[in-house]
Amino acid sequence: MPRRHLVDICDLSKEELYGILNLALEIKRFPKKYYGICDGRILATLFYEPSTRTQMSFQTAMLRLGGKVIGFSDPATTSVSKGESLKDTVKMTSGYADVIAIRHPYEGSARACALYSDCPVINAGDGGHMHPTQTLTDLTTLLLEKGTLNGLTVGMCGDLKNGRTVHSLIKAMSRYRTKFVLISTKELRIPDYIRDCITESGCSCVEAERLDEAIPELDVLYMTRIQRERFKSLTEYEEQKGVFHLDNQKLRLAKKELTILHPLPRVDEILVEVDEDPRAKYFEQAVNGMYARMALIAHMLDGRTGIPMPVYPPSGRRCPNTACITNKEEYLPRMQRVDISGPVCAYCESKL
Ligand code: NCD
Predict the structure, then answer these.
(1) What is the 179 CA–ligand 1 centroid distance (Å)?
(2) Which residues contact 29 (CB under 8 A, 6 or more apart)?
(3) What's the gap in Å between 263 CA and the centre of ligand 1?
(4) Which pTM was predicted?
(5) DSSP per-residue codes, 271-282
(6) Calpha distance 343→319 (Å, rounded)
(7) DSSP, res 189
(8) Quick check: helix, strand or coil at residue 16?
(9) Distance, CA 265 to ligand 1 centroid (Å)?
(10) In angstroms, what is the span from residue 165 Cα to ligand 1's centroid?
(11) Which of 24, 189, 315, 342 is the most exposed place for a label (fewest CB within 10 A)?
């Protein structure tokens, strides 16, 4: 059977996705039933970038399933600091572990990892590109709170350009007749490949620059922090930071049934006073992340989830995105995919 990976949330069919979300909710209700189902299996967490929730929830997910965990959270303590390539680290790790979760600062790194891994690869965040397991977390929470994913008006606010959780969530929600309200500054709007995805889905999408004007019609508000580490310079970050704040005053304009989500960590975009509002669900969301990852690991280890690495045609061109993994690890084959707007890099989805 070909190896299956979760690089992009759309690697899961709609049916598979529902299966995983429902399993996550089932595990949350009856956790003991699932203790030990991954006995003898090993998860490797290769974290080249800082993480609190994603790494700990992956680890606790595997431990609760009865499996074991190896890995690193600081590449400086590994052979990466001696110049080892991503290919070599992954190839070798996949001989030790049954499943790999990788987080890396370069876009497309999980796709690259899947090329060389002998076991399933899970993308735990690849630069400012994608974060599919955060989406599983978000959708599990929405299913619990709303009872459906269909037809919701979803506001996304903050750094929509660099926020990988936003990109993955939009891709997933584009399948559910969502009405998107994108709230950001002009500089931090969604990238073209996400815009194309909304267009292709036929979902409606409006853009706004003020949270107080957008908030009254929302069923869901997804707040995000401005991603300081993705800016080219500190000056550019300084110009964007602190623009959006959710506070109790703005919440007075919102629906009673609004669900407030945030992938966390927050900086200053949600005031602490909001934590007491019953509509604030971000801490529950973080806990749901563990159940979502338990469901995903269980599914992946039975070999049926995710898609085998697609075969992409070679691209003669270098990817123009300097944050793309192909511009860091030069041995990677250049590959392309054809999108509605033309050829894009198969790793980071930038236009070629
Ligand atoms: C997010 C991430 O790493 O992209 N955090 C997370 O995984 N829960 C969001 C962020 O860092 O802003």
Answers:
(1) 23
(2) none
(3) 6
(4) 0.96
(5) -GGGGGSTTB-H
(6) 11
(7) P
(8) helix
(9) 6
(10) 7
(11) 342
Amino acid identity of 2? P
The letter for the amino acid at 322 is T
Ligand 1: residue whose CA is nearest its atom 6: 263
Measured from CB, residues less than 6 Å from any atom of ligand 1 are 53-54, 125, 131, 134, 164-165, 224-225, 263-264
DSSP character at residue 45: E
CB 130 within 8 Å of CB 167: yes
